[in-house]
């Protein structure tokens, strides 16, 4: 069966990085961010177990009001998002935002701006001749634009909007920073204002604890002949059978007795670090 279309944008193929996951309830399918950005819905929402809930009658009301509003980008009717600029009559669907160079701010009041009223970076900088995106290494053009951004801190890191959005998605709020100067304090707020969505989570490379083993302490005697009766994997808290780790690499260990060390010896180096025969 085909996936149902979002009742707010009418799309089944929308980019989840822009529109978020789909949510089906009360017989209606909506993208999370289509719901959040739709005019008037956020004010009617409430928080339940860290998720946003909206009454179905409020969703139906927004759909009904949007039936007479055409999208200024794709020209289809049913545009539920209005430009936040006072007096502006432009409306659009969330999946159309990038095509129409609209900025949608994924924080605070979740404001949206049409191309005419979208914020521009305040930093005064120009890329060097033949400057490339620091992420994909493709040319960035002659200066800042909707599709080309620069780090406001170092003013030397240039990148495409799609490239920095991809980095934000993978890094999350915990690790998102300028790819060049590593600034966070100036860089992160500026990216939010410019419409980069930064997930409120840790980096995806930590999903499933893929690197958890890097935090484990070595726990095995690596002497050529282990003398401990209970085996290489066991040790005692003190004395001749206490396990000492290499003081340089901590990647190898030995029971004191297995390397003929006294009970008062606190430091030991493996053969790789100290050299064979030492």
Protein described:
With 278 residues, the protein is α+β, with helices and mostly antiparallel strands. It has three domains: 16-113, Zinc/RING finger domain, C3HC4 (zinc finger) (Herpes Virus-1); 120-216, Herpes Virus-1 (2-Layer Sandwich), CATH 3.30.40; 217-277, Zinc/RING finger domain, C3HC4 (zinc finger) (Herpes Virus-1). The protein has seven helices and twelve strands. The protein has helices spanning 16-19, 32-37, 41-44, 56-66, 161-175, 187-193, 271-274; strands spanning 22-25, 28-31, 46-48, 51-53, 81-82, 91-92, 103-104, 112-113, 148-150, 158-160, 243-245, 253-255. The chain has a two-stranded antiparallel ribbon with strand order 1-2. It starts with 15 loop residues before the first helix and ends with a helix.
Task: Summarize the structure in short.
By secondary structure, the chain is of the alpha+beta class.
Secondary structure blueprint with pairings:
Blueprint (H helix, E strand, L loop, with lengths): L15 H4 L2 E4 L2 E4 H6 L3 H4 L1 E3 L2 E3 L2 H11 L14 E2 L8 E2 L10 E2 L7 E2 L34 E3 L7 E3 H15 L11 H7 L49 E3 L7 E3 L15 H4 L4
Antiparallel strand pairs: 1-2, 3-4, 5-6, 7-8, 9-10, 11-12
């Amino acid at each position: 069966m085909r996936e149902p279309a979002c009742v707010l944008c009418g799309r089944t193929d929308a980019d989840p990085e822009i529109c978020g996951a789909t949510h089906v309830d009360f017989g209606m399918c909506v993208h999370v961010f289509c719901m959040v950005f739709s005019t008037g819905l956020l004010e009617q929402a409430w928080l339940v177990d860290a998720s946003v809930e909206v009454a179905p009658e409020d969703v139906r009301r927004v759909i009904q009001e949007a039936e007479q509003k055409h999208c200024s980008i794709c020209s289809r009717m049913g545009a539920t998002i209005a430009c936040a600029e006072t007096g502006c009559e432009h409306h659009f669907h969330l999946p159309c935002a990038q095509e129409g160079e609209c900025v949608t701010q994924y924080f605070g009041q979740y404001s949206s701006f049409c191309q005419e009223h979208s914020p521009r970076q305040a930093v005064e900088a120009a890329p060097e001749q033949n400057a490339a995106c620091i992420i994909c290494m493709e040319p960035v053009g002659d200066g800042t634009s909707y599709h080309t951004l620069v780090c406001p801190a170092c003013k030397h890191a240039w990148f495409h909007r799609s490239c920095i959005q991809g980095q934000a998605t993978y890094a999350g709020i915990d690790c998102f920073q300028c790819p060049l100067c590593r600034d966070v304090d100036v860089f992160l707020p500026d990216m939010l204002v410019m419409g980069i969505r930064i997930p409120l989570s840790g980096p995806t490379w930590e999903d499933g604890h893929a690197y958890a083993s890097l935090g484990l302490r070595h726990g095995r005697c690596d002497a050529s002949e282990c003398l401990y009766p209970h085996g290489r994997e066991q040790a005692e808290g003190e004395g001749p059978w206490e396990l000492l780790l290499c003081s340089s690499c901590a990647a190898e260990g030995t029971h004191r007795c297995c390397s003929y060390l006294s009970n008062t010896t606190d430091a030991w180096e493996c053969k790789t670090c100290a050299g064979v025969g030492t």
